[in-house]
Specification:
Peroxisomal Thiolase, Chain A, domain 1; 2 domains; five-stranded mixed β-sheet; four-stranded mixed β-sheet; globular; binds oxa(dethia)-CoA
């Protein structure tokens, strides 16, 4: 019998400290950096984001999200045989945040590793987990997106520091006789490395170069809308479906204008798009599973709905996953 994979539970976690645009504008003003709630809302749709306390790591946010997802799936951590964490802000250079999270879950022995594809990390990780389940390497996977982007923000650069937040989202993905994940489509183009990166590196125990996020926002914006449309269309074609089959588009939550542009190109009304960027900001690899879990728990997304998840980010990376929930 053909083996498929299906999401059986979702979970998420936000660090408690919620920072509104007004809070952030006041904090930045104290250092001579000018911004406003009006500018941030008009250009991005963001109203607030959450920031983790300095001692809270990605694996810590991720383990809360993972526990919530396991509870929703009715599974114990001991039943998990694969853990993949998508993150660009890992706890350590090594080992992976996945192994640290595995230990925090109180289990050991199963495969655990990180995937690094920045804001496309979750769709990459979900595609890898689906492939491993379909080929029989795993039966019950935890796929987590977890980020503390506040650690890599340059708070003297108003063009980037107002955009990002911290958080984690998770799904339990299990072997199933009926599909779940219908198709996926992943891409990268390294010629765009410079438009969104943290260019620093470690050498001789010291950071060499720039350890904070740099972005050419307009270049990212222009590329994003085009690749999100093409990835969605390619994924639909692989699954033999059309835009009309999509119940919910759950795109990476970076900027409401990118999401509106993508929906327009796919001829989807905005009431079929899950939007959490207003409350979370851009949480990179965590944004899609955070949006998914929030839509499941609010009752927007229901069992049997067809979902298009889409990521885009540094690398440049992009991709989509179409699934029956
Ligand atoms: O996961 C993928 C991650 N990245 C993204 O998705 C980002 C994609 N890009 C964007 O979302 C948008 O390009 C931004 C939100 C980053 C910027 O929006 P924009 O409409 O492209 O604005 P802009 O860069 O053209 O800047 C317009 C003006 C500039 O002032 P001048 O030169 O016109 O006087 C900026 O200096 O807005 C100014 N500005 C700000 N003003 C107040 C830039 N940032 C701010 C700010 N507050 N935070």
């Amino acid at each position: 019998m053909t083996q498929f994979s299906r999401i059986t539970g979702t979970g998420s976690y936000l660090p408690p400290r919620r920072v509104t645009n007004a809070d952030l504008a006041a904090q930045l003003a104290a250092t001579g950096v000018e911004t406003s709630d009006d500018w941030i809302v008009e250009r991005t749709g963001i109203r607030a984001r959450h920031f983790a306390e300095p001692d809270v790591t990605s694996s810590e946010l991720g383990v809360h999200a993972a526990r919530n997802a396991l509870e929703a799936a009715g599974r114990q951590a001991s039943e998990v045989d694969l853990i993949i964490v998508a993150t660009s802000t890992p706890d350590m250079v090594f080992p992976s945040s996945a192994t640290i999270l595995q230990h925090k879950l109180g289990v050991g022995g199963c495969a655990a590793f990180d995937v690094q594809a920045v804001c496309s990390g979750f769709v990459y990780a979900l595609t890898v987990a689906d492939a491993m389940i379909r080929t029989g390497s795993a039966r019950c996977a935890l796929v987590i997106g977890a980020e503390v982007f506040s650690r890599i923000l340059d708070f003297s650069d108003r063009t980037t520091c107002v955009l990002f937040g911290d958080g984690a989202g998770a799904v339990v993905l299990e072997a199933s006789d009926t599909p779940g994940i219908l198709a996926s489509d992943l891409h990268a183009d390294g010629k765009h490395v410079g438009i969104l990166c943290v260019p620093g590196t470690l050498s001789g125990g010291k950071v060499l170069g720039e350890p904070l996020l740099k972005m050419d926002g307009q270049a990212v914006f222009k590329l994003a809308v085009g690749v999100l449309e093409s990835a969605a269309r390619a994924t639909l074609a692989k699954a033999g479906k059309t835009e009309a089959d999509i119940d919910w588009l759950i795109p990476h939550q970076a900027n409401i204008r990118i999401m509106q542009g993508t929906a327009r190109k796919l001829k989807l009304p905005m009431d079929k798009v899950v939007v959490t960027v207003d409350q979370h900001g851009n949480t990179s690899a965590a944004s899609i599973p955070l949006a998914l879990d929030s839509a499941v728990r609010s009752g927007q997304v229901k069992k049997g709905d067809t979902l298009m998840l889409e990521g885009v980010g540094g690398g440049f990376t992009w991709g989509a996953v179409l699934l029956d929930f």
